[in-house]
Amino acid sequence: MxxxxxxxxxxxxxxxSYELVDxxxxxxxxxxxxxxxxxxxxxxxxxxxxxxxxxLVESLSISSDGTEIKIAKSSEKExxxxxxxxxxxxxxxxxVLMFVLAPRWELVNNPFDMTLVPTQRCYLRTSMEWAGSRAxxxxxxxxxxxxxxxxxxxKLPDRFQQPGVLFQDLSTGEIKQKSFTEAWRxxxxxxxxxxxxxxxxPVPPSEAFWRMYAEPFSSFxxxxxxxxxxxxxxxxxxxxxxKSVVELDEGVELDKAKVDPLELMQGxxxxxxxxxxxxxxxxxxxxxxxxxxxxNSLLAAFALMYVHDLTSQNxxxxxxxxxSHLFTTSAWRGRFCTDACRWKMQKKIQRxxxxxxxxxxxxxxxxxxxxxxxxx
Length: 376
Ligand SMILES: [Zn+2]
What we know:
The protein is an alpha+beta fold. Helices cover about 35% and strands about 20% of the residues.
């Protein structure tokens, strides 16, 4: 059975063990690779997996020297444990639309013919797979022919393309043709400068690809932070975080809260960009056809789950007024991620009120008692 008919669409890849070396998150050598279904995680735990990523961003300790973002030693375990559970974000498959490998000597496509011909392979990202195509050069070529060796042309033949990558930046949306060195250096950090342009890169999502692939922590962090900001701004229009705790208690109306249109537009664009790589598909599971939404990256799967929650009735994504963690709630006015946070805020308010000037208006007192913080 062709691989694409199976439900790889609902799978993502993770290793049993990861390590952080020279600022790169990569699988430990010899670690077992396995697939899992991020959607199953959603139905098993009730908690959306994308919120584990926002929580990770909220809790990791980082530092920056102005040029590079670094993770604190004390946070490394938390990051690597998260990767053991969910794998890497898939920053490369998410941002690469197409890649073209350097031409090599390959056998013609005929089992009875052992002739080697210059062949170039190109891979296009589709929603279900990386669709490969090959172009063959039939003109005269100089040089020794050895299977799998790179073919050097003084001038690239018409039917061949410049080796490299068509890359879409996630935050700006800009699409650019880039060299492998420019686009992939940080994802394959252990290739030498001489190897990068003509390397026979394994095709995602093969095991060979995942074993070579790494994500720089700085990119992981930037994109995860961008994702968190998007979740917050779309899930909850600008709220009253700038208000004092006493004003909070007075009950600022959430529906009158101001929305920052620029932030909203930017968040919407990023989410749409993540969803662009997804289109409906179907495959076999336990001998039954199932409709699926194949995702080329974990990030895209998280975006789809988020949109599912965002557009569900009676499900809201909020930022906790006490600890700022994002959480889902069925209460439109939900303000606290846990009871513990609600009690902490009540204590804070009591302390703030004890230090604030006495409120004399009877009506104000009445409103205050009605809008108490026990509403969740
Ligand atoms: Zn909280």
